[in-house]
Structure prediction request, 674 residues.
Amino acid sequence: MSDGDAEADAGSVVAGNRRAVGKLLTRIECADPSVLAVLDLLYPRGTHVPILGITGPPGAGKSALVDQLIARFRARDERLAVLAVDPSSPFTGGAILGDRIRMARHNTDPNVFIRSMAARGHLGGLAGAVGDALIVFDAMGVDRILVETVGVGQNEMDIILHAGTVVVVQTPSGGDVVQAVKAGLLEAGDIYVMNKMDTGGVDRAAAALRDSVDFRHPLNGSDAWRPPVVKTQAVEGTGVDAVVDAVLAHRQHFERFPHQLEARRRLQMSAVLVERVAALWRFRNSTQHPSGPAFEYWLNEVMARRSAPSAAAAALLSGFTREGIADYAPAALRPGK
Amino acid sequence: MSDGDAEADAGSVVAGNRRAVGKLLTRIECADPSVLAVLDLLYPRGTHVPILGITGPPGAGKSALVDQLIARFRARDERLAVLAVDPSSPFTGGAILGDRIRMARHNTDPNVFIRSMAARGHLGGLAGAVGDALIVFDAMGVDRILVETVGVGQNEMDIILHAGTVVVVQTPSGGDVVQAVKAGLLEAGDIYVMNKMDTGGVDRAAAALRDSVDFRHPLNGSDAWRPPVVKTQAVEGTGVDAVVDAVLAHRQHFERFPHQLEARRRLQMSAVLVERVAALWRFRNSTQHPSGPAFEYWLNEVMARRSAPSAAAAALLSGFTREGIADYAPAALRPGK
Prediction:
């Protein structure tokens, strides 16, 4: 694909052409390498659209909440892009996507772009594919991006690394708290939703969640955000307005304290970059692809028992990290150009 | 810890001091960095002990089979080291380890060294911790090493990368075949065990497994190993002698075709090394640890939207892989020394 094609594709996305956006997302899912040239063009043209991540264990009611949130933000006349991320294997993917059918009522709305993604084989893993999809969304001219993902496992934690505001959905059932601790969700949320508030024990569960969240978010001075805990019944829409208010308040908090948003973005992007390098390294050295001479050298050292695997890995990595900046940067990207 | 301490620790392991081995394994589990010096000393002194990996879905009867295999190999007067790998979180670890209590009857046998491992926080991930433990076992003077791991997920597939012979345990229940396909187990096994042969449908299940395995292991010439399918009732010990025969036959196959063993080891070690580099890279760049100047440079490029994350990752990695061999190798390890 020529540069001219990439420029045309990028132009269609920036013009808000939904068909072009859809085709580009499919190419991202299929790990079409020519898509990288389009992303390189789109990334500088992004408009820093607020990204709202919605996560939580299976069955917590994430899709119902997203459906309600779409309706609320549409009532505020916002144009939306929604990404439903399904990290499951193809064996279970269908069932999980089925839960999202209720969202389909928004599909006829020209101001809501909804896409499910279950990418495999992407150079940067699923989190990399999501990151690339968000670059496209950020450039297509919407007011807000919603990303829904199951908050179980490292992969999903990587995905919410892209969000400026993370909503963690829980239910009153006791097991979820343990799940949340395991998954690191009590550190990850900016807003906590205790869904299924019609279930028994909701007040006790919400209070326990309140305590757990406060314990993990010590208020260091008056400029720290204190994650609210909101009770909802998402299917009926009860409490969803309070979630929207919390989302807007979190954004206002960052507008008051822009250095906090900047620090968060830097921390997130650092983690994103680490994972992308690891994924690309793994991809390039998979058995189908020959490795470079340094890798071959150290592999031979290990095979001959002259170097232990840990020492060889450290040696390979030290060759990587001690390099000077000038050697890394391609000419086109060096400072001053 | 001084080099002298490392030398003393390595010497104790080589002398077969079980207490020293146990303490070293604990240090590996706890990610004690001083253990690397001991491993560097032990790795060249390893004796290429055959490693038998036993894997399969939860509940397939792996622990019962391992218990029986220990008894059979002991009857052949072999000295054994056994590693039961539990990749679960601390929340479920206890329960799974409880299944392994039956193995404890061998704990009083001075010629059987049994250890459970549920390492977290290791520089090379759980697979890295297992790889390090196997270096210790390989140097302690045993005749055979057994590694038991749940065959679900990438982590476990990494673990069996260390084994010269992999036994995949299945049961007649239909769901397991789908699980096996998903987990890539039908490519991974050298020997297949259809356990719980007293269950209904065992012959049909074994025949189906036979077909599936043959489909994935095309016999390219007469020197290819055809993975046998063995029916067992592991708790009662039925069929276990046939598993032992298959294990010995697989070893004899590699003695007849040593280039096959060499090629397998090279492929495995290559994958091990790739994963260790990725894990170490991730560890070094975790939020607690500052990154190098090249990483900082590219992070700034991405933050300023001058470079897309995928392009930055590729640039970082190309700086890594194009390096010459001489630049990587520490002086002490360069060829000719």
Summary: Confidence is low (pLDDT under 50) at residues 89-99, 321-337 of chain A. Residues 258-284 of chain A form the longest helix (27 residues). The longest strand of chain A covers residues 144-150.
